[in-house]
Amino acid sequence: MSFDQEWAELKTKAQVRLDSVPGMDPGGPSPDGADLVLKYDDMGKIGHAAFLLHQHLSSAGKHAQQATEAAAKSLEGDGFGTGAALAKAGEGWQGQLQVLLDACAQISDHLDYSVTSSNQDDQFIGAQLRVSKISEYLDVPPPTSSSDVPHVPKAEGPIM
Description:
By secondary structure, the chain is mainly α. The chain has helices at 3-19, 40-60, 65-77, 82-138.
């Protein structure tokens, strides 16, 4: 089979697989029509689990570090080649442990930021909608340019 034939066959198979994949939201649209639903409780649980994992890894991941370093030094001192290999394995372990710790911290921090940012975005959008509604009642004309401030008419009659 030539490359072109094999490539065409693989593309066809991939398209069939893509066609059988359900949509992005298998549960259907949300009840209020929102396309992004952020469940703060779920995000909080995941962020907390990442935080706890970070704490546990910080202590448990280093419990054998001193013993490994001492054994490596002792083996090297006695002329065994495995001492250097053990030291290198210990360094590799510490490097991988640091990667995991960084990933846990990033997950926890990112989820905290996402919840805070989403709350701020929701508050801003809500405020904009309220201002928009107020503007409708006051018959405030829309600004003609971005630097144009709309004129708000003064209320007539007594002000309480």
